[in-house]
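Quick one:
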Amino acid sequence: MKGLVSAVGLMLVALTLSGCSSDYVMATKDGRMIMTDGKPSIDKETGLVQYTDEKGHEMQINGDEVSTIIER
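Output:
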């Protein structure tokens, strides 16, 4: 019985953590749609938007090129 309770607890923790990382879509002013893995961050000093693409690469784009960022 303890094993069942701990297994259910572990599954709940895993589901909670997996729900924390949402994917986002960035629309650029030239019409491109960029899918991101996790929420993009905006560097206030440089104006660059930093994000992780779907393949896991760290990327940056000029914030002036981004028109909207929405959660998927």
